[in-house]
TrEMBL record:
InterPro entries recorded: DUF6593 (IPR046528)
Protein name: DUF6593 domain-containing protein
Domain DUF6593 per the UniProt entry, residue ranges: 64-174
One protein family per Pfam: DUF6593
Domain of life of the native organism: Eukaryota
Length: 208
């Protein structure tokens, strides 16, 4: 699949000058929950970079998140993302022990499936950008979340909470990093967050 036909390939880090794209209170985030959770079939929580955060890194040889290994700050593998070419390219998201939990089929439109979370559907309607591309929303079961583009970072919030509940931050520090509040791991949506983060920073439908 060509770079231009991937609807997420040009998502980039752009942030419109319109300050209305982020509600008040989106400028900072922190958690008061110091205990690492468990999340079912997914691997145990990685080592925390602070009492309130766990840090994941997307590691790849060419910078493409759709062919990468997701590790903690100690380089212990937690997720493996691979894209296989064919009549329709398919990106598979798996746990460290090789159990798949999500796929993206790079058809037109691309189709995303996340086991027990997101039924097979148009990925561009699941990870839905606002008109000004200052935010992107995702739904995971009954829960809704909002990615907010601010400068060189992307922040994740629970959209139903008032005030908005900050959950994670996606940014680059030599490699692509994803800081997640330990409170966010309790909701069982980390797998969906990893899929969305990889799509937001994909470079061309998993091209090599």
């Amino acid at each position: 699949m060509s770079h231009s036909s991937n609807p997420y390939a040009q998502a980039g880090w752009s942030n419109p000058s319109n300050a209305a794209c982020a509600a008040p209170g989106y400028s900072s985030w922190q958690s008061t929950m110091p205990h690492a959770p468990t999340y079912g079939a997914l691997p145990p929580a990685p080592a925390a970079s602070s009492p309130n955060l766990v840090t994941f890194q997307f590691n790849s040889t060419n910078g493409d998140t759709l062919n990468s290994t997701v590790t903690d700050s100690n380089y212990q593998t937690y997720f493996v993302i691979t894209t296989v070419p064919g009549p329709v390219k398919v990106t598979t998201f798996a746990t460290a022990d090789g159990v798949p939990f999500a796929t993206v089929e790079w058809s037109t439109p691309p189709l995303v499936t996340i086991m027990n979370k997101v039924p097979r559907q148009d990925a561009t309607k699941w990870l839905l950008f606002s008109r000004d591309r200052g935010t992107a929303s995702i739904g995971v079961g009954p829960q809704c979340f909002l990615w907010v583009f601010k400068g060189t970072s992307i922040y994740l919030y629970r959209s139903e909470s008032n005030p908005p509940e900050p959950l994670a931050k996606l940014y680059r520090n030599n490699t692509l990093c994803f800081d997640v509040n330990v409170s966010a791991l309790h909701n069982g949506c980390l797998d969906a967050f990893i899929v969305a983060a990889a799509l937001l920073q994909s470079r061309g439908g998993g091209s090599a």
